[in-house]
Amino acid sequence: MKEKFLTALAQISCQRGDKQANIQKIEEYTERARRQGAELVIFPELSLTGYTIRDELYELAEKIPGPSTNAIEKIARKCKVYIVFGMPELSAKAQATIYNSAVLVGPEGYIGKYRKMHLPTHSVFEEKRYFRPGYQAGTFETAIGKIGLIICYDIFFPEVCRLTRLEGAQMIICISASPSVRKAFFEALTVARAMENAVFLAYVNLVGIEDGLQFWGGSRLVAPNGKIIAKAKYDEEDLVVGEVNYIDIKPVEAFVPTLKDLRPELFDKLKGKAEEL
After folding, report:
1. Which residues contact 60 (CB under 8 A, 6 or more apart)?
2. Which of 67, 72, 124, 165 could serve as 197's disulfide partner, Cβ 3.0–4.6 Å?
3. pLDDT in tens, 61-94
4. Chain mean position to CA 68
5. Residues assigned a catalytic role
6. Torsion sign across C-alpha atoms 118, 106, 199, 262
């Protein structure tokens, strides 16, 4: 396993409903990232289709693996990189059940997927209308370490990152489609989740305007000590590359020992109190 490698944050806008155009853009950005030495390239939430596609989801969703994951897997093999991207996943068991999923592929092919657990359904969001929530953390062994996946609103819930970290993730990737009104939240929470778990955290947000909703970008790679290693521009497409070095985890774990000092008995109390809400 590599201890040190370059990660590319591919902050793109998407063509709503046009999977072929978006796959082409994923390929272009992956090739650019590879030329800069990146071994991991990360794209935003629902980057295969765009975010505000509503009822079109029922036509655009695919099984995983499926045609689109196979196409992006070929890009990963050709460029010899790992790719994370978002897409609507069609259930293998029901014809109208869809998940908001993150997919990880690499030079060896399809590796795994994560289904978004927390689906915002308030203000401008209506995800529960379309998606079924996931129920499992997503942590995967790769040649560049153990990678954990979460999606957007999940980062508001520290339990998800904590569980992913306790499953061994050295790097947590959060793909996102956050509008500008949530900018301050994500800038604070990405740093907090990295520091409280002594983990690298890569946040990649959608950019552009879809159906009147503006996405702010601001993607960043955060070190375990909260330092911003790389940061993308606001409100426009960008590609930035930063170095992940797992050696940096050890001193943070030693001097800010949040994992060692966990009190697991509190989790049972948390469950009980949450059930009383």
Report:
1. 17, 19, 49, 53, 88
2. 165
3. 999 999 999 999 999 999 999 999 999 999 999 9
4. 18
5. 45, 116, 152
6. positive
The CA-CA-CA angle for residues 237, 243, 106, to 5°, reads 75
Give the residue among 189, 42, 144, 158 at the shortest CA–CA distance from 102. Answer: 42
Provide the CB-side half-sphere exposure for 57 (13 A, CA): 27
SS3 (DSSP) at 56 = helix
Q: Provide the 10 A C-beta neighbour count for residue 178.
A: 24
Domains of the chain (ranges; CATH) run: 4-275 (3.60.110.10)
Cβ atoms of 87 and 101 closer than 8 Å? yes
Which tokens sit at 37?
């030495």
What pairs with residue 98 in β-bridges?
A: 90, 131
Question: Phi/psi class of residue 274: alpha, beta or left (left: φ > 0; alpha: ψ in -120 to 50)?
Answer: alpha
* All residues at 6 or more sequence positions from 156 whose CB lies less than 8 Å from its CB, including other chains: 118, 185, 189
Both tokens assigned to 118: 């927390």
Q: CB burial class (10 A; 0-12, 13-18, 19+) of residue 80?
A: exposed
C-alpha–C-alpha distance, residues 13 and 171, integer Å = 24
